[in-house]
């Protein structure tokens, strides 16, 4: 029997000790199930093992003693499934160092790789051809999941049996995966909402009002839909938890690192300074220029994404970017 046909997944590993990797590991370990987490930094490994905390990336969360950490990727073998929660710019290098095996890989990162224009599943297919893959994405602030607050999420895998088996294994009374076969839709939703959260943060930081934010969410969703449909995503995925759901969450809260980065830009702070000062990721800052370039290459109109890319690169000022968006020719709403 292949892993894809397994009906139960009991032993999970988590690759990545940031906020989201730690929260997912805690979700699975909360009732005492053993979960092994790989983190790059020895400080994170030591704090999880000795104090059952991750003060660097998930301060305030008490972690289960059954969650153990390692800095040795080689020890993540012999498990039933691995959740991969590494920011996309570092993903290829970490995957290349993973031990071989047939445990399905569940991708939880939200971004697109520079240069290759690859999403996580594309990278994984190159490194592990034939392995089972899934995407887990939706409106899920890590600290809320770690605190056991109600959360729903999309779990997509091409093989419906794999999606259903993983959903059953990950579901908790307060954590509800909805299954799908549309991995590309789930990946695109998560990557583009990060960029649009920066845009909404900019509008907030610049004091441009709530009408402007609602307009950005709607017109941003139109960009996500154009890009997604052109790459074979299903409209229902983009309108679901991994697309619109996550867009609403991160475009309306400064708990979003992407939104908070945008707020700084909107207040007139320099992108270079805002980026240099941070330890946590705002994936949208990495992905904006990549998605904007991919859209240009395919002649997909994405003016908001393009504006965020230029603002993050310091190539334009907020007032000029807003003026450029507002002075585009009038058009039918459906385009
Ligand atoms: N936080 C959240 O609420 C959610 C986040 N996500 C997504 O999950 C992914 C991870 O985000 P998150 O957990 O929040 O990250 P954090 O910002 O909390 O932490 C940054 C992570 O990046 C890692 N990192 C930094 N440099 C490198 C490197 N050179 N090689 C490998 N790893 C490196 C850090 O590891 P190290 O300690 O070793 O530096 C750390 O695990 C992102 O794609 C994000 O969009 C998805 C849903 C929710
Ligand atoms: O993806 C997230 C919630 O779904 C977290 O958003 P940020 O990375 O912007 O904090």
Which characteristics define this entry?
335 residues; alpha/beta; Rossmann fold; N-(1-d-carboxylethyl)-l-norvaline Dehydrogenase, domain 2; 2 domains; 15 helices; 11% strand; globular; binds NADPH dihydro-nicotinamide-adenine-dinucleotide phosphate; binds 1,3-dihydroxyacetonephosphate
Q: How would you summarize what this structure contains?
A:
With 335 residues, the protein is α/β, with parallel strands linked by helices.
Q: Work out the helix count.
A: 15
- Widest sheet, order of strands: 3-2-1-4-5-6-7-8
**Strand count, sense and closure of the main sheet?**
8 strands, mixed
Category by helix and strand content = alpha/beta
CATH superfamily of the largest domain: NAD(P)-binding Rossmann-like Domain
Q: Based on Cα principal axes, name the global outline.
A: globular
- End-to-end Cα distance, whole Å, is 48 Å
String of helices and strands: EHEHEEHEHEHEHEHHHHHHHHH
Radius of gyration: 19 Å
Detailed description of the structure:
This is Glycerol-3-phosphate dehydrogenase [NAD(P)+]. InterPro entries: 6-PGluconate_DH-like_C_sf, 6PGD_dom2, G3P_DH_NAD-dep, G3P_DH_NAD-dep_C, G3P_DH_NAD-dep_N, NAD(P)-bd_dom_sf. It catalyses: sn-glycerol 3-phosphate + NADP(+) = dihydroxyacetone phosphate + NADPH + H(+); sn-glycerol 3-phosphate + NAD(+) = dihydroxyacetone phosphate + NADH + H(+). With 335 residues, the chain is an alpha/beta fold. It has two domains: 12-181, NAD(P)-binding Rossmann-like Domain (Rossmann fold), CATH 3.40.50.720; 185-327, N-(1-d-carboxylethyl)-l-norvaline Dehydrogenase, domain 2 (Orthogonal Bundle). It has 15 helices and eight strands. The chain has helices at residues 19-29, 42-51, 88-96, 120-127, 142-146, 160-170, 183-205, 210-230, 235-238, 241-250, 257-266, 271-276, 283-297, 303-312, 318-326, and strands at 12-15, 35-38, 67-70, 81-84, 105-107, 133-137, 151-156, 175-180. The protein has an eight-stranded mixed beta sheet, sandwiched between helices. The protein starts with 11 loop residues before the first strand and ends in a 9-residue tail after the last helix. 48% of the residues are buried. The mean pLDDT is 96. Residues 16-21, 39-41, 44, 57, 85-88, 90, 94, 108-111, 140-142, 280-281, 283 line the site of NADPH dihydro-nicotinamide-adenine-dinucleotide phosphate.
């Amino acid at each position: 029997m292949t892993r894809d046909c397994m009906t139960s997944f009991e032993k999970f590993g988590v690759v990545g000790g940031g906020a989201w990797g730690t929260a997912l590991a805690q979700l699975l370990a909360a009732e005492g199930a053993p979960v092994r987490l790989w983190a790059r930094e020895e400080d994170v490994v030591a704090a999880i093992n000795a104090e059952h905390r991750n003060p660097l990336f998930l301060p305030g969360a008490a972690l289960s003693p059954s969650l153990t950490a390692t800095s040795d990727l080689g020890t993540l073998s012999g498990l039933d499934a691995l959740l991969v929660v590494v920011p996309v710019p570092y993903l290829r290098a970490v995957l290349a160092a993973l031990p071989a095996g047939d445990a399905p890989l569940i991708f939880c990162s939200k971004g697109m790789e520079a240069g290759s224009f690859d999403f996580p599943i594309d990278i994984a297919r190159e490194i592990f051809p034939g392995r089972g893959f899934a995407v887990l994405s939706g409106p899920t602030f890590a600290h809320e999941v770690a605190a056991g607050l109600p959360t729903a999420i999309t779990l997509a895998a091409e093989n419906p049996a794999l999606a259903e088996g993983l959903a059953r294994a990950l579901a908790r009374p307060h954590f509800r995966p909805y299954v799908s076969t549309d991995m590309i839709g789930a990946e695109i939703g998560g990557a583009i909402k990060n960029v649009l959260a920066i845009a909404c943060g900019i509008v907030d930081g610049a004091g441009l009002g709530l009408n402007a934010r609602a307009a950005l969410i709607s017109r941003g969703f139109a960009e996500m839909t154009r890009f997604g449909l052109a790459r074979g995503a299903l409209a229902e995925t983009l309108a679901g938890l991994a697309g619109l759901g996550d867009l609403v969450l991160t475009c309306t809260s400064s708990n979003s690192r992407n939104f908070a980065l945008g707020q700084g830009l909107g207040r007139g702070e320099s992108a270079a300074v805002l980026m240099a000062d941070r330890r946590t990721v705002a994936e949208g800052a990495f992905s904006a220029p990549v998605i904007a370039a991919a859209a240009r290459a395919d002649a997909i109109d994405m003016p908001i994404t393009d504006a965020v890319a230029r603002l993050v690169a310091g190539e334009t000022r907020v007032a000029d970017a807003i003026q450029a968006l507002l002075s585009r020719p009038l058009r039918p709403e459906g385009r």
